[in-house]
Amino acid sequence: SGSVPISTTLTAGLYEENNASFMYSGSWTRNPDHAPSHGGGDEYASTAGDSMSFDFQGRGLSVYVNTYPGAGTYDISLDGSYVMSYNTYSDTEMAQTEMYRLDSLDPTVAHTVTLTCTSPNCVFDYAVVR
Predict the structure, then answer these.
(1) What is the C-alpha to C-alpha distance for residues 89 and 66, in angstroms, rounded to an integer?
(2) Cα–Cα distance measured from residue 4 to residue 75, given in angstroms and rounded to the nearest whole number
(3) In angstroms, what CA-CA distances link 63 with 4, 12, 97, 102?
(4) Is 105 in contact with 70 (CB distance < 8 Å)?
(5) Cα dist. 14→46, 71, 125 in Å?
(6) Percent of the chain predicted with pLDDT > 90
(7) What does the pLDDT look like over 113-125, one tens digit per residue?
(8) N or C terminus: fewer CB in 10 A for the chain?
(9) Long-range CB contacts (< 8 A, 24+ apart) of 20-24?
(10) CA-to-CA distance for 106 and 127, rounded, in angstroms?
(11) 3-state DSSP call for residue 39?
């Protein structure tokens, strides 16, 4: 990606959206006062093409987002390869929704996850490494 990595590799634990290891690209805005979100805050991407990435190492991973009316779609990549798209639209707001889950990973291998907002209005809440 051409950027100098300043992140550290996340290991087992829960990581809120404002963790320094999450690398945001584009016009993300932190919403520090959103009670439904885990820890009371989240990150909001208003523009298609905004993305975020992080490195992790563990046996599993879960990525949590908020779904709501008018919400956009994420493309999810693992180690630079497209995995799936996830539409975060829902009729009512549903915070702390598990969007992406990995299990049975080799805990000695580090991975990079990239979430790209492909249509406007994506919210990232937190991630759990197992």
Answers:
(1) 9
(2) 23
(3) 24, 13, 8, 9
(4) no
(5) 25, 24, 11
(6) 94
(7) 999 999 999 999 9
(8) N
(9) 21/54, 21/55, 22/52, 22/53, 22/54, 22/124, 22/127, 23/52, 23/53, 23/54, 24/50, 24/51, 24/52
(10) 18
(11) helix
Q: Is the pLDDT of residue 86 over 60?
A: yes
Q: Give the largest CA-CA distance in the chain.
A: 40
Neighbour tally for 106: CB within 10 Å: 10
Measured distance CA(129)–CA(103) in Å, rounded: 10
pLDDT by residue (tens digit) across 32-64?
999 999 999 999 999 999 999 999 999 999 999
Tokens of 69: 């009316």
Predicted pLDDT of residue 31: 95
Given a cut of 60, whether residue 130 has pLDDT beyond it is yes
Write the pLDDT tens digit of every residue in 88-104: 999 999 999 999 999 99
d(CA 116, CA 130): 23
Which tokens is 71 given?
């919400």
